[in-house]
Design goal:
mainly alpha; 3 helices; flat
Length: 77
């Protein structure tokens, strides 16, 4: 099986592309400001790799919560 035949490959590719876009934008903003490598700039670059995971977790929680609510309402009636 080739890697691109696996749906997880495409999810990982999209994740990496989104991360790369935001890393580039954050890097360019810091470079344009000319303030050097301070803590907020480094933290911003590190957070660029984490925020897509947090969005996925929030969406997953919303989906699961919606299922739990529909099951609870079906059980209560």
């Amino acid at each position: 099986m080739m890697p691109w035949e696996n749906p997880v490959f495409w999810l990982q590719l999209v994740y990496c592309l989104i991360t790369l876009i935001f890393l580039t934008m954050t890097y360019l903003e810091g470079w344009h400001s000319g303030e050097g490598w301070d803590l907020p700039r480094v933290a911003g670059l590190l957070l660029c790799t984490v925020w897509p995971v947090m969005i996925a977790l929030v969406v997953l929680d919303g989906l699961l919560l919606g299922k739990r609510r529909s099951q609870a309402s079906a059980n209560s009636s």
